[in-house]
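FORM 7B: Structural annotation worksheet

SECTION A. Query
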Amino acid sequence: MEYTTGTVGKCICLRLHENDPVYQSIENVAVKEDIEAGVVFVIGGVKNGAVVVGPKDQDERPLRPTVERFDNAREIAGIGTLFKNEEGALKLHMHASIGHGKEPVVGCPRMGLDCWLINEIIILELKGLSAVRAKEASGLELLKLLPISN
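SECTION B. Predicted structure
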């Protein structure tokens, strides 16, 4: 286990409208607001999703994702983190519960997701953390905590 500490900075409240791309919208606002790290909360409706629901083989490297796709309107409750990758690009990593009636999907909707009707999103800026998303043998950019320089 590793950990680091920081503080909470500004809070951003974001409303997405019908057809806004969820990931791109969150990342664009965070870049515009000069967020280097943050936590993201998402509730509302989504459509046109492609959700990674696990690996095809948990022991294979790099991992090949199992993807569930849907076009219809569904409800979402999700939480994610924002950190820069090794190239300096801010990246959202979110997991969500997405459902319509008896059709739940839980996973990482990084392969595509559009707003249906409305998304209410809160971004909390995290300050003082020293971390980056680094490419690993899994093929994913995973969180790497860096030493804090004094």
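SECTION C. Observations
The longest strand covers residues 114-127. The mean pLDDT is 96.

SECTION D. Sign-off
Analyst initials: ____
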